[in-house]
Each structure stands twice: as structure tokens, then as C-alpha cells.
């Protein structure tokens, strides 16, 4: 297996990986709010790659037999004009996507992808790495906990109207 920077020839693999992740998230969403829009497969990878390109980011792929079996995307966002008012503003990298295809999980590929993006962030003087994890994704939470991530923020949701 190789770890490489994204190449356009792997775009369809990236689409497949992101769709696999979204389908999984839909399957565990207790609120029923996630969905796989009919245009998701075609468009989401392009949206994510554009965000990477516009925010000093990278996409790395785990490739085996000329097929991407895992990916990680990360960005280095800039702070806004007033962020300093309530935050120390250390430079940080943000993991925006991480997925390893189901058949390749449990082989350390996710950890290698995390190490790859962390090396990129460190080479750009980032002091922290952040990742948002879907609260119902207990496998991902355990994975990040095992890599010394910890929870800093919670997002709470409450349904107001029954339809």
C-alpha cells in the first residue's frame, strides 16, 4: 500500500469513498437528517477538493493495486477579523474527511492517514488539529480517542416540530 497526494486519476475512487462514508452516516443517523442526495456522488468530491484547494489543504490517499482504499482531507483555515476577541487563535489544521473502505478497515490505514495529514499540518506550523465527529459514529469516536484526540465542544440538537 502507498500513501500519496491526491491525483485526478483517482477522482472516481474518491467519489466512491465519500459516498460509502455518507451512506454509513445515514444508516446510523438516529435523527434521520442525513441523506445521500442524488447528486452527492457526482458533486461532493468536487466540493471537498475545492475546499482543500482554497484553504491551504491537502488530500492524501491510501492506494492499493492502483485503487484508493482510503482518504483524508484537511485544511488550514485562516481566522476572521474578530476571532482574536474571544480566542487565542493558535494555528490549526482541520480534518474535513477521513474514510477507509469497509473491506480495508482494521489494518491501520486510518492511523497512517492521520499521521500523514498531521505531518502536513506540522510542516505548516499548526499547533493543533481539529476534527468534527458525528455523535452517533461511536467507531470514529473510539478511533480518535485512541489517537489522543479529546472532546472540546458539543453540538446539541432538539426537535421542535413533529411532521
Low-confidence runs of at least 5 consecutive residues: none
The average pLDDT score comes to 95
H-E string: EHHEEEHEH
How would you characterize the largest beta sheet? 5 strands, mixed
Rounded Rg: 17 Å
CATH superfamily descriptor: Gcn5-related N-acetyltransferase (GNAT)
Tell me the distance between the termini. Answer: 48 Å
Sequence of strands across the biggest β-sheet: 1-2-3-4-5
CATH topology: Aminopeptidase
- List the domain count as a whole number: 1
Assign the CATH class.
Alpha Beta
Give an overview in words.
With 163 residues, the protein is an alpha+beta fold. The chain has one domain: Gcn5-related N-acetyltransferase (GNAT) (Aminopeptidase, 3-Layer(aba) Sandwich), CATH 3.40.630.30. 35% of the residues lie in helices and 20% in strands. It contains four helices and five strands. The protein has helices at residues 11-28, 40-54, 109-123, 138-146; strands at 2-5, 58-64, 67-75, 92-100, 128-131. It has a five-stranded mixed β-sheet. Helix 1 packs across helix 2.
Amino acid at each position: 500500500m502507498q500513501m500519496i497526494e491526491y491525483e485526478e486519476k483517482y477522482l472516481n475512487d474518491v467519489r466512491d469513498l465519500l459516498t460509502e462514508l455518507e451512506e454509513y452516516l445515514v444508516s446510523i443517523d438516529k435523527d434521520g437528517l442525513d441523506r445521500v442526495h442524488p447528486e452527492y456522488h457526482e458533486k461532493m468530491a468536487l466540493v471537498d477538493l475545492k475546499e482543500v484547494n482554497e484553504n491551504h489543504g491537502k488530500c492524501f490517499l491510501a492506494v492499493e493495486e492502483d485503487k484508493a482504499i482510503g482518504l483524508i482531507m484537511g485544511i488550514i483555515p485562516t481566522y476572521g477579523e474578530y476571532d482574536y476577541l474571544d480566542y487565542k487563535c493558535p494555528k490549526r489544521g482541520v480534518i474535513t474527511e477521513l474514510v477507509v473502505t469497509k473491506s480495508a478497515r482494521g489494518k491501520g490505514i486510518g492511523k497512517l492517514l492521520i499521521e500523514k495529514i498531521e505531518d502536513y499540518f506540522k510542516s505548516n506550523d499548526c499547533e493543533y488539529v481539529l476534527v468534527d465527529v458525528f455523535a452517533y459514529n461511536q467507531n470514529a469516536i473510539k478511533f480518535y480517542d485512541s489517537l489522543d484526540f479529546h472532546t472540546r465542544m458539543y453540538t446539541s440538537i432538539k426537535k421542535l416540530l413533529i411532521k
